[in-house]
């Protein structure tokens, strides 16, 4: 699928939830974008330390060597949450609840990042 996306001019975002899935996806030839979902899809529990756990040690090295972009997904509500996943090695975020629940999405984004990022 990653290859087909590339032919079509797309980059596939492949989502993982645990070490086993992450290791499998890290082995895909040409993988560029991996999302770490902090939500357990069986229990719907959120835990952003999953991102940190998955990006420790050897895996972080592989991510760096292969120039893979890691997307932090789910459970991000505050600037501290963003800083935490960024520190872990995340370069992009996938955010739903903390923005869509605001009446003004722009303000929701500013609150999430602790500043107005619309010009940066
Ligand atoms: O509402 P949250 O906790 O900010 O989560 C958003 C997003 O990460 C989540 O909805 C999601 C994770 N993986 C996805 C894949 C497709 C669409 C949505 C998603």
From TrEMBL:
InterPro entries, per the entry: Aldolase_TIM, Indole-3-glycerol_P_synth, Indole-3-glycerol_P_synth_dom, RibuloseP-bd_barrel
Pathway in which this enzyme or protein is active: Amino-acid biosynthesis; L-tryptophan biosynthesis; L-tryptophan from chorismate: step 4/5
GO molecular function: indole-3-glycerol-phosphate synthase activity; phosphoribosylanthranilate isomerase activity
Broad EC category: lyase
GO-annotated biological processes: L-tryptophan biosynthetic process
EC number: 4.1.1.48
The protein's name in its UniProt record: indole-3-glycerol-phosphate synthase
Keywords, ordered alphabetically: Amino-acid biosynthesis, Aromatic amino acid biosynthesis, Decarboxylase, Lyase, Tryptophan biosynthesis
Catalytic activity field: 1-(2-carboxyphenylamino)-1-deoxy-D-ribulose 5-phosphate + H(+) = (1S,2R)-1-C-(indol-3-yl)glycerol 3-phosphate + CO2 + H2O
Residue runs in coiled coils: none
Domain Indole-3-glycerol phosphate synthase: 4-111
Originating organism: Lupinus luteus
Pfam families: IGPS
């Amino acid at each position: 699928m990653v290859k087909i996306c590339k032919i079509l001019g797309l980059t596939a975002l492949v989502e993982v939830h645990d070490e086993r899935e992450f290791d499998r996806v890290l082995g895909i030839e040409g993988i560029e974008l991996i999302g770490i979902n902090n939500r357990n899809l069986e229990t719907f529990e959120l835990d952003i330390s999953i991102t940190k756990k998955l990006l420790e040690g050897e895996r972080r090295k592989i991510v760096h060597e292969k120039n893979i972009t890691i997307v932090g997904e789910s459970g991000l509500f505050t600037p501290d949450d963003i800083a935490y996943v960024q520190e872990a090695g995340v370069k992009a975020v996938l955010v739903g609840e903390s923005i869509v629940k605001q009446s003004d999405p722009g303000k929701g984004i500013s609150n999430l990042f602790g500043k107005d990022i619309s010009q940066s």
